[in-house]
Design brief:
Structural class: alpha+beta
Order of helices and strands: EEHEEH
Largest sheet: 2 strands, antiparallel
Number of helices: 2
Number of domains: 1
Number of strands: 4
Shape: globular
Distance between the termini: 24 Å
Length: 82
């Protein structure tokens, strides 16, 4: 479920450069104007738990991101310019 090894930041479900740009790998990242939250900056509509209080919450973020990413087919969920 977390195929991308981002070194000291851990493993993530989407490419590391996207997580870095979206949140700087910060599990507490929040964008109040868009409701985007967590390291993947997912919106409320994605049903992710917030705030992240446990490893189970982190796993849910990874699961949702992996589902949205769909091996790259869902890349439109994130702006992919570097």
């Amino acid at each position: 479920m977390t195929p991308y090894d981002c070194g000291a930041y851990g493993r993530f479900a989407i490419p590391c450069y996207i997580v870095d740009r979206e949140s700087g790998f910060d599990w507490g990242a929040a964008n109040p104007s868009s409701t985007a939250r967590g390291p993947y900056q997912m919106l409320d509509i994605h049903g992710r738990p917030w705030p992240i209080r446990s490893e189970a919450d982190k796993l849910e973020h990874h699961r949702i991101a992996a589902h949205l990413w769909a091996g790259g087919a869902g890349s439109s969920h994130w702006a992919l310019t570097r």
